Amino acid sequence: MALLFKNRGTMMLLMFNLFLVFAGIGLVIPVIPKYITMLDITGSTAGLLTASFAFTQLIFSPLAGRLSDSFGRKRIIVTGMLVFACAEVIFGLADSALLLFVSRLMGGVSGAFIMPAVMAYAADMTTEEERAKGMGYINASFLTGYIIGPGIGGYLAEFGIRVPFYVAGAAGLVAAIITTIVLRESRATRKSDEKNTIVTQKEPQKSLLQQLRFAYREPYFISLILVFVMSFGLANYEAIFGLFVDHKLGFTPKDIAFIFTFASIGGALIQLSVFGWIMNRLGEKLVITLCLLASGIFILLTLFVHQFWLIFAVTFIIFLSIDLLRPAISTQMSMVAEEQQGYVAGLNSAFTSLGNIVGPVAAGMLFDVNMNFPYVVAGMILILTVGLMLFTGNKRVLPTSNDRNERNVESC
């Protein structure tokens, strides 16, 4: 727990910022039906609204990672928090579908700025021995925010449909002010101008498409595939969970809010308390393999349980598996990133966004065919991905300067 209070509680502040932004993703879920009625928008528009956040996060994540390497983590984090605060207030004030889209697109930009910068900052301030624990803390806040967001939105909406967004906007502004005052720039960004010039010469800026195109040559490419699969599975599961339990089991909104809230809190607490110990005892590869297998199996088990507490138990295991899986993958990538922490964190965020876009779209299409199909597909993909871990080693080999230069020439 000492890491949480290191450098004037820097880790706790980073965790709060990330939790706040990604809780904002889920705030919209419980109020979308009322907004559809109030603003007379169609269901397809509502689906695009949900995907728009992840889309802009995908577009801006690699750029934000580069900017955090060039201009410092703190500036990017504060900028992201201010954009987030504005986006939430705009959503609360919206009286047209256009303003809703503006808000969600801005929210995606804020997520793109904050997530890679926070992850890079955590890598900067931790030693190799602390890295797994630090990534565990950061990813616990991210996933808890993403999962618990619908529950928070549902409870706050009891006081008014727009209240959740005003509260989130105010919290974002306060967090930006506190970050400006308390957070110090991390050590890794205080490198000499000469070293930064050398790094820049070796790694020319590339577009998002170029970064994704050549990602397969990176030593952490398998980890990026795992990030996509994990995000796809979680987004797939969460996107139609409410519809699934409503249609099949008759659960109420309060039942759904309870499951999301307490299952995510339980998973996060376990991650915060024992993740570092688990990583030290089992190693990254085994943790990733077991979590992929567990999440896939329990997503499939969702199809065969019908009682409230059994659904709660299955959901808890799924959230716990994802809570442990993400920081294990992030730790694996950060170990090979060296001076590219921001760049690698940006790619991590981009592949997360790809999963968050494809997952809900696929889930919605499959649900229209058969309500069980989304979970069958998600569970099978997660289980099959275990093969990637069984047939890949744990080598942490960085590409040479020649390899990088060849890639840069080819990308021109």
Automatic annotation (TrEMBL):
InterPro entries from the UniProt entry: MFS (IPR011701), MFS_dom (IPR020846), MFS_trans_sf (IPR036259), Sugar_transporter_CS (IPR005829), Tet-R_TetA/multi-R_MdtG-like (IPR001958)
Regions crossing the membrane: 12-32, 44-64, 76-94, 100-123, 135-157, 163-183, 220-244, 256-279, 286-304, 310-329, 341-367, 373-391
Subcellular location: Cell membrane
Domain Major facilitator superfamily (MFS) profile: 10-396
Protein's membrane topology: Multi-pass membrane protein
UniProt keywords, alphabetically: Membrane, Transmembrane, Transmembrane helix, Transport
A Pfam family matched in the record: MFS_1
Family recorded in the similarity comment: Belongs to the major facilitator superfamily. TCR/Tet family.
Protein name, entry field: MFS transporter
Organism phylogeny: Bacteria, Bacillati, Bacillota, Bacilli, Bacillales
